[in-house]
Amino acid sequence: MTTTGHQEDTARSDRNLYAFAISFVAAVGGFLFGFDLVIISSAQLYLRDLWKLNDFWYGFTTASANFGCIAGPFLGGWLCDAIGRKMTLVVASLLLAVSAIVTALAPEMISFNLFRFVGGLGVGLASLASPMYIVEVAPPRIRGGLGIMFQLAIAIGALSSAICGWLLAKYVSPDVSWRWMFGSEMAAIVLFVVALYFVPRSPRWLAEKGRWEESLAVLTKVDGPEYARKEMEGIKASLTEEQGTFSELIRPGMRMALLVGILLALFNNWTGWSAMSYYVPTLFEKAGVLNRADAIYQNVLINGWQVFLTLMAIFLVDRFGRKFLWLSGSGAMAVFLVVAGLMFHYNLTGIGVLLVMFLCVTPHAMALGPMPWLMMSELYPTRLRAKAVAITTTVIWIAGWSSPFLFPVITGFSERTIGSVGGAFWMFTIICILAFIFGLKLLPETKGRTLEEIGKSWHPK
Q: In the chain, N or C: fewer CB atoms in 10 Å?
């Protein structure tokens, strides 16, 4: 290899490392997302006993943070345009900090749910700003892998939350262990705010605000001067052509893009695992695991498996593409949910229950979970991105609130109707079949394309 070639490889490696580093920091918003929402699965059994919750209030308390997430994206859409993606993440962190402190000290159910809502608002902001920031700084050749880092961070946050919940359940008095579960999030929040200080603004947001030199400097640092020049040409053309209003989203072409984003959001949360994940300890109790700490420990194992699978998705997404992973994931999920329903319907216990839960998390972690978060930020032109992603992220949180909220009601109805919770799993099977048809007919492939190319592809020829 020549000296020049070696220098070019070294420079590209350094740029890849820089893109990875700033994407990693932004993805920590996903860690807080995963930690904040999954900690309730460890605490919910204590809260149910403490406040004597019926099925409705058990579901409401479990999903109250998700309810706050619904409001986050519309506030986030305005904030992302006004103060930028980076500063929106700072605001999200402050909301999460207030929530962590107050829920840890909550004396009764009303204040607890109110400040879980506040934390959900912070999660909603992070869920909009983090993936948007990552796809806007990542070069097309590695955008898929970096984009899925957000889902990886969610999975690591969920795993950390499960480990924290298990250790506190095992070693701390049950009267206060749930309070420590919610307060423990503060450590990650402080580290996140400090790390955000060192990352640049989104180059596309800088360009939108007319700060061309700063935008060019960030793009150059991400993937070199030639890439930066070409990207700036595309960004300038995109900003010139687009009006960037909500009304443009319902024009021919863009309304199909919006529909695809909305369907991705719905399938993300209504293909089974998003609802099941909040109730893993409860499901294991139904399957005969009577020790509460042991039931929570099963959650640790499953979330550890989810982290590994998400790493696999990062490796696969830029090789096989988004569409292939979606079709494989939705098809496999339909099959695995049938098996899960049979396990619970016939009251099978032991290691088989753990194995079937491992099966159900696999398609979600590799496809149905990460693809919507990645693609919802890829589908739209720069001037419309914050507005479109605000809508689709709001839908993802409506679905994300409704699925865990309704899961106890659905399983209760199934138990009364057919004598087991199996019917809930079979209902999700039907939705997975619809997700497969959607992937086959409507889902575009975005692998290797620039954001400007994807945005233009929706316009009628």
A: C
Burial of 367 (0-12, 13-18, 19+ CB in 10 A): buried
Nearest in space to 126 (alpha carbons), one of 174, 188, 172, 180: 188
How many CB atoms sit inside 10 A of residue 8's CB?
A: 13
- pLDDT at 407 (0 to 100): 85
93 within 8 A of 189, measured Cβ to Cβ: yes
In this model, does residue 37 exceed pLDDT 60? yes
**Residue 348 reports pLDDT greater than 70:** yes
Residue whose C-alpha is closest to residue 326's, from 431, 453, 458, 437: 437
Mean pLDDT for all residues in the chain: 86
Q: State the maximum Cα–Cα separation within the chain, in Å, rounded to a whole number.
A: 74
pLDDT in tens, 232-265: 888 888 777 655 677 778 888 888 999 999 999 9
CA distance 122 to 29: 9
Tokens of 445: 């492939």
Cβ atoms of 454 and 379 closer than 8 Å: yes
Mean pLDDT, residues 263-271 taken together: 93
Higher pLDDT, 287 or 458: 458
Residue whose entry in the numeric block shows the structure tokens 């204040």: 111
Give percent of the chain above pLDDT 70: 93
- The alpha carbon dihedral of 409, 413, 415, 416 has a sign of positive
Please give the structure tokens belonging to residue 10.
Answer: 């070294």
Q: Residues 98, 183: contact at Cβ < 8 Å?
A: no
Total-model pTM: 0.76
Q: Which pLDDT score is estimated for 289?
A: 65
| Residue 9 tokens, joined | 């490889």
Distance CA 385, CA 172 (A): 46
Q: Side chain identity at 342, as an amino acid letter?
A: L
- Please report the pLDDT score of residue 11 as a whole number: 62
The CA-based dihedral angle spanning residues 310, 311, 315, 320, taken in that order and rounded to the nearest 10 degrees: -10
For the chain, report the end-to-end CA distance as a whole number of angstroms: 46
DSSP structure string for 125-194? HHHHHHHHHHHHHS-GGGHHHHHHHHHHHHHHHHHHHHHHHHHHHHHS-TTTHHHHHHHTTHHHHHHHHH
Non-local CB neighbours of 19 within 8 Å, separated by 6+ positions: 137, 138, 139, 142, 146, 222, 223
pLDDT band at 336; cut points 50, 70, 90: very high
Residue 174: DSSP 8-state = T
Token pair for 147: 């984009």
- 181-215 residues labelled b (16+ CB within 10 A) or e (exposed): bbbbbeebbeebbeebeebbbbbbbbbbeeeeebb
Backbone angles phi, psi at 2, to 5 degrees: -75, 165
